[in-house]
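## retry 2 of 3
previous attempt timed out at serialization; input unchanged, resubmitting
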Amino acid sequence: LADVHAAVLNNADTDTDLDIVLGTEYNYPLGKMEVWFGDGAGGFSHGFDDIYDFAGLHLLHSVRSLDLGNLVNSPAKDVVVGAESGIYRGRIEIFRDLGAPNGKFVHYRTLDSDGSVSALVVRDMLEDSDGDNDIITGTITGVGTGRIDVWHNNGDGTFGVINTLGIRVPSDSVVVNGEILCLGVEQLNNDVYPDIVIGTRRAAAYSGEVMVFQCYGYVPSAPQWVSPDVGEAITLTINDFNKDYRYDLAV
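## retry succeeded, writing output
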């Protein structure tokens, strides 16, 4: 394997066994997406056609994040890849199952990002009431700076909005004080809207914070909670660890 920067354990085909979807980098800024199918006994295997090094007509860039989710009412989950195409530049690559839930995917669409897409989640943010999954990304836009982007699913196979220059951009964006290294989405309070949690790296070495954005049909311009300095927050997970029916954070 090349350097693995992202991995998701999920069911990519029609059986009941969990599979692994990987994102790699083999020669910066180039990478691959790989699907490894589980045999139900702890083993995984894949074929040559389960390695994706092209996104349409261009080479896939260094994969930094990925997630699975149903984007266009298809029988199985699609794969969304967040990539770094250059310094502080990135792309979102969407691979569809195209109605054949067999773990084989076809490149569907590219979204350009003006930041490296270091974190990505597929989730319905409920901002448009359409019941479809959106794409939420955390990016690195410079030294010690980042941005949360929400690409709304428009229901017609497109994401985001067209700005006055005719360029497709995120539907909602918030600049944050820190490079976003990880991101999670979950309903942390008592409303119906999912909230966003990010882990950051500050400009100073080994410095970073965890931030919680309580979303109410939009992403607020500032976090509602910021942790003390935890060091560089490289990864996080959200779960009810102490079984009190409230979500907790592990960083």
